[in-house]
Description:
Distance between the termini: 80 Å
Strand content: over 45%
Number of domains: 1
Shape: rod-shaped
Low-confidence stretches: none
Oligomer: single chain
Order of helices and strands: EEEEEEH
Number of strands: 6
Strand order of the largest sheet: 1-2-3-4-5-6
Largest sheet: 6 strands, antiparallel
Amino acid sequence: MKICVHSNRGPRSEETPCAFYLGGRRLPVLAVLERWADGTHSYFEVMVDDGRRFVLRQQPTLRCWELAACFAAKQPKKPAAKPVTTAAPRKFFSSLLHSK
């Protein structure tokens, strides 16, 4: 899927995405998690403000950007539920019950 990407040029003239548009919404790039290249494309795994991750693919010769993959935000682990145990009646209440 072709997308519009705003990028900055680095010290070696490589482009790095800083924001992109998806569904009419601007998503600022908080971090570039990983980058790699094959013979014809450069790939950037980026993270946006809500924790989602996207893989953006660029064809440098055409300056064309595509969305290659998207991943949901990682959900924090919930603490394990503690088993419920029945408590023995307190001595105060049991003395009231037996005093009649």
